[in-house]
Amino acid sequence: MDKVLDYIIVFASGGILSLIAQVLIDKTKLTPARILVTYVTAGVILTAVGLYGPFVDLAGAGAKTPLTGFGYNIAEGVKRAVDERGIIGALTGGFTAASAGIAAALIFGYAAALVFSSKGKK
């Protein structure tokens, strides 16, 4: 029964973050790109002030998978690299921590661009 509750928490937390983004897309004039940047930045800021870590501990993949989780991953990588390498870690830590996600986004984005044609927002 504990696993079922874990799955519900993960699904609900990821769903709420996605719901907020969808409401922003539907009800504001913000472009999806601005919402993307806002989510990543919010993940970094919330991690820096110590709020996103406990959320990740509670929600697991529901907090790590959305774009706020990408910001969390970057911030944690920077913290770790600064502890290990000093100030130079502030420049390299985020890239090292998020390299797999960045590479996957580039590869799958390129593959999608080859297969599909884009349409502008009306």
Protein described:
The protein has 122 residues and is mostly helical. Helices cover 83% and strands 0% of the residues. It is built from six helices and no strands. The protein has helices spanning 2-27, 32-48, 52-59, 61-64, 67-85, 89-115. α5 (67-85) runs antiparallel to α6. The longest helix is centred in the last third of the chain and has 27 residues, at 89-115. The radius of gyration is 16 Å and the shape is globular. The mean pLDDT is 90.
Give short descriptive properties of this protein:
122 residues, 6 helices, globular, mainly alpha
Number of helices: 6
Order of helices and strands: HHHHHH
Question: Which structural class is indicated by helix and strand composition?
Answer: mainly alpha
Mean pLDDT: 90
Low-confidence stretches: none
Which percent range fits the helix content?
A: over 70%
Q: What does the overall shape look like?
A: globular
The description of the largest β-sheet is: none
Give the CA-CA distance, first to last residue: 46 Å
Strand residues, percent: under 5%
In short:
This protein is mainly α and 122 residues long. The protein is built from 6 helices and no strands. The N and C termini lie far apart (46 Å).
Topology, element by element:
Elements: H1 2-27, H2 32-48, H3 52-59, H4 61-64, H5 67-85, H6 89-115
Helix pairs in contact: 2-5, 5-6
